[in-house]
Design a protein that fits this description.
By secondary structure, the chain is mainly α. The chain contains five helices and no strands.
Length: 116
């Protein structure tokens, strides 16, 4: 089933976007501002081709359904209009998608920054 609801209603790559935002947050919290531009350029240089390759896989697997979705939802930078219908937030889905690891990593990073 093609994910279209929740964060996927705003951007086709919410996990890559979230990772970028968290990394920028760590750079800002660590006050190493000179790393911002080089990191963002590096990140986009590495992950843009990955996003495009994954799109080809999705196109092969979902065809017209993915084409329609890709025509409405941006690749990376989110749209800020309200999507038509989205599903409810479910903690079970967070666990199923193993996103609790991301939350744990974020909490450890914040603890490190506070304690340093």
């Amino acid at each position: 089933m093609l994910a279209r609801s929740g964060p996927y209603a705003f951007t086709r790559n919410p996990l890559y976007l979230g990772s970028l935002v968290m990394a920028i947050g760590v750079i800002v919290a660590g006050q190493v501002y000179w790393l911002l531009l080089p990191f963002v350029l590096f990140y986009l240089t590495v992950y843009y081709p990955v996003m495009r390759a994954e799109e080809q896989e999705l196109l092969g697997g979902y065809g017209e359904e993915f084409k329609e979705y890709a025509g409405k939802v941006p690749l990376f930078f989110p749209r800020f209009t309200t999507p038509a219908a989205t599903s409810r937030f479910l903690w079970s889905r967070v666990l199923q998608n193993r996103e609790h690891r991301t939350l744990g990593g974020l909490l450890l990073t914040e603890a490190f920054l506070i304690l340093r």
